[in-house]
Amino acid sequence: MIGVGVQIGFHPPAEQLALARAIEALGYDSLWCGDHISFHGQYYEALTLLAAYATVTTRIKLGTGVYLLALRPPALAAKQAATVDQFSGGRLIFGVGVGGENPKEFEVVGVPHKERGARVTEAIDVVRALWRDTPATFRGRFTSFEGVSLDPKPVQKPGPPIWIGGRSDAALARAGRQGDGWLSYVVQPDRYAQGLAKIRAAAEAAGRSLDGFTAAHLPFVTLGRDHEAARSTWVRILSQRYNQDFGPLAGRYGIIGTPDQVVEQLGVFIEAGCRYFAISIIADAEGLREQLETFATEVLPRLRAR
Questions:
Q1: What 3-state class would DSSP assign to 138?
Q2: What are the DSSP calls for 84-104, one per residue?
Q3: I need a surface site. Which of 7, 212, 241, 266 has the fewest CB within 10 A?
């Protein structure tokens, strides 16, 4: 069955938590948040936000899409993630990525921008060791320790699934070597299929099985009475959010239109190998609830039937 979750952007705290409750009540499978220390617009700290979601939900999975692991000491990330998994009863999906669009957020935490990929690759192993072992020992380029226990451990054993975000060859190789899943964004279906092939090749070269691996995608979705109305909203909001013209990108990366059109567009990703969507609804604040409800009633059941 195709899994479907929702990533929501920034809202005042009471509204943010009300949306979390609504998304669970509407039957979605997961609730996602992005992560930046500093970027265009406003972001809550990701694991702190998921801890808040854990207190107002009971069933829905909680995911980072994606957590910029290089911006934090890996032991701190492991501790915070384990806490979220504890308070949610084992519902965390730990999506991690390299980031890099804003070098200033690396500068402000004292991490060299050019080291971000190597740091994430090592930090994934650090986090898993601390989740798994009592005591844990690790010797690496950026992190070394001996006989350290991190308790309590996560509810999920040996730890929450780690999904790798990104679309570069380095990210795809990382997903194949280390990931429990892959979360892509800003790709077309043909590139998605090529990405999965590269992940399989990296896993085979590393001698690991991809049994249980989740192939996921984060699409920007706008529903409307027709394609043009939905496209206008999609372009306007994303152009404001990212401070660039998204008009040329709508035809390539937008999931836009009536429910029938959106089902058809997402279906092409399913044919390319995707089995999970973490959708980002692109809508004005006053229309977000309606979009979530329409997607849940008119799109979600048809995707799951695939």
A1: strand
A2: HHHHTTS-EEEEEE---S-HH
A3: 212
Report phi then psi at 171, rounded to 5.
Answer: -65, -40
CATH number of the domain enclosing 167? 3.20.20.30
- What are 287's two structure tokens? 């229309």
Averages of pLDDT over each 10 residues, the chain, 306 residues? 95 97 98 93 95 98 97 98 98 96 94 97 98 98 98 98 97 98 97 98 97 97 95 95 91 96 98 98 94 98 91
Domains: count for the chain:
1
CB–CB of 93/33 below 8 Å?
A: no
Give the structural domain span for 48. 3-304
Q: Cα(306)–Cα(301) distance, rounded to whole angstroms?
A: 9
**Any idea of the CA torsion for 77, 79, 84, 90, to the nearest 10 degrees?**
110
Q: Rounded to an integer, what distance in angstroms lies between the CA atom of residue 291 and that of residue 8?
A: 12
The two structure tokens encoding residue 269: 């990703």
Does the N-terminal peptide bond of residue 299 adopt cis geometry, omega within 30 degrees of 0? no
Distance CA 23, CA 118 (A): 36
Query: 74-87 and 116-132 helices cross at what angle (nearest 10)?
Result: 50
Non-local (6+) Cβ contacts of 267 within 8 A are 303, 306
Cβ burial, residue 144 (10 Å; 0-12/13-18/19+): exposed
Q: Whole-angstrom Cα distance, residue 287 to residue 196?
A: 35
pTM across the whole model: 0.96
Say whether the peptide bond before residue 135 is cis (omega within 30 degrees of 0).
yes
